[in-house]
Specification:
The protein is of the alpha/beta class and 316 residues long. It contains eleven helices and 13 strands. It binds nicotinamide-adenine-dinucleotide.
């Protein structure tokens, strides 16, 4: 494949690029990344001579077109996004620019180059709040986003779905649950818990801490994306894939597991005012993705231990 990976200097995108370069050295990879605060280009240093890195904006259709044509790109994997819910509550505009306008720019490019496939990375947050007794969300369920972030992601994927229907573009969408692992921006929940715990500082936990998330190791998410890339999309016809591990943890439980691994006291946990519009629970039914042969491999506590090691090194 000749891949254009957008957002490849961010958390999930960098893991995808590192893993793909290792597994498929014969492929061409071009990374397009705006290098926002969430990016760290040095994540790609180990493979810098094996990829082409371009600093730029996915909303720059002229640039994306040039990259697709110059590098004979056959597949775009769109990880680029503004991704932090709290930031979207403070200011939604960057989210609309990248997540909505940026995605539409990619759609315009694949409309003009129908041989190019687009794998668009969305999120389980597009389903909105899930109650404790509700069944896991299916890909056919309605989208009910709660935050400006998830609303912008829902808008983006509806544009992708509209372009599949109206223009026949080759595209699929993944809706994954919360990721954890090395390379995640400091603002996110697990890096925050680890950083604060290492400094013996109060660990902020929203509300009652009882909100539930289905945490997936970033490597398992990347494997799911790789599996979906091997599918013949024209034959398969499915356009949306849920990705999750079907094991939920309350935020409070996650904070306690991290504290236990670090040998720190639970009384570092400090409950703070809940996030506005905070979704109670996310849960997805990923059985369709499992029919492709994908299954998560990383057990949560084991994955957390190696994640904690990475951040301990970063923060010390
Ligand atoms: N992190 C999660 O738990 C999670 C879960 C499900 C889905 N997702 C989705 O996965 C994707 C990647 O998430 P992440 O956690 O790695 O995000 P991230 O914030 O760590 O990285 C995003 C990357 O996109 C780049 N970027 C931002 N705006 C850009 C633009 N206009 N043009 C080019 N590059 C731009 C940033 O510089 C950064 O490198 C996002 O689409 C996100 O919605 C994330």
């Amino acid at each position: 494949m000749n891949l254009l990976v957008t957002g490849g200097a961010g958390f999930i995108g960098s893991h995808f690029v590192l893993r793909h370069t290792d597994a498929h050295p014969e492929d061409t990879i071009v990374v397009l990344d705006k290098l926002t605060y969430a990016a760290d280009k040095s994540f790609l240093d180990p493979i810098a001579d094996k990829i082409t890195f371009v600093e730029g904006d996915i909303a720059d259709q002229v640039l994306v077109t040039k990259l697709v044509e110059d590098h004979k790109i056959d597949t775009i994997v769109n990880f680029a996004a503004e991704s932090h819910v709290d930031n979207s509550i403070a200011d939604a505009m960057p989210f609309l620019h990248t997540n909505v306008i940026g995605t539409q720019a990619l759609i315009e490019v694949v409309k003009a180059h129908p041989e190019v496939r687009l794998l668009h990375i969305s999120t389980d947050e597009v389903y909105g709040d899930v109650g404790d007794t509700d069944p896991s969300c299916k890909t056919t369920d309605p989208l009910r986003p709660s935050s400006p972030y998830s609303a912008s992601k829902a808008a983006a994927e509806l544009l992708v779905q509209a372009a599949i229907r109206t223009f026949g573009i080759q595209a699929v969408i993944t809706r994954c649950t919360n990721n954890y692992g090395p390379h995640q921006a400091d603002e996110k929940f697990i890096p925050t818990v680890i950083r604060k715990a290492l400094k013996d500082e109060p660990i902020p936990v929203y509300g009652t801490g009882k909100n539930k998330r289905d945490w997936i190791h970033v490597g398992d998410h990347c494997d799911a994306v790789e599996t979906i890339l091997t599918v013949d999309w024209n034959a398969d016809k499915r356009t949306v894939f849920n990705v999750g591990i079907d094991r939920e943890y309350e935020n409070l439980e996650v904070a306690k597991i991290i504290l236990d691994i670090l040998g720190k006291p639970h009384d570092l946990i400090s409950f703070v005012e809940d996030r506005k519009g905070h979704d109670w629970r996310y849960a997805v039914d990923s059985s369709e993705t499992r029919t492709l042969g994908w299954a998560p491999k990383v057990e949560f506590t084991e994955g957390l231990k190696h994640t904690i090691d990475w951040y301990t090194n970063k923060y010390s």
